[in-house]
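User: Before I run my own analysis I want an independent prediction to cross-check against. Here's the chain; please return only the structure tokens and, at the end, one sentence I can use as a sanity check.
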Amino acid sequence: MANVDTLWQAVENLLAELKSDGVELSLDAHEQVSSTFMNGLRYGDRLEAHVEIESLRGKSTRKFAHLVVERLDSGRYEPLSYVL
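Assistant: Structure tokens:
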């Protein structure tokens, strides 16, 4: 996933990537992601959110989505997501 200029762009990219991979999050999970990433992020720091997945490719699952955003020294944000 490409680096972006704002924290919210990074979060939107993470959520879009999950959706394109067939991951459905509950409303509570979306709210948790929003509240985790709503504050600023210092250079060199990272924020992480770990939320339960409601369904994966249309089937119920007990997996979690792990969303990570790191602010690079350049000021850009590096988003990363994975499912376990």
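Sanity check: The first strand starts at residue 23 and ends at 25.
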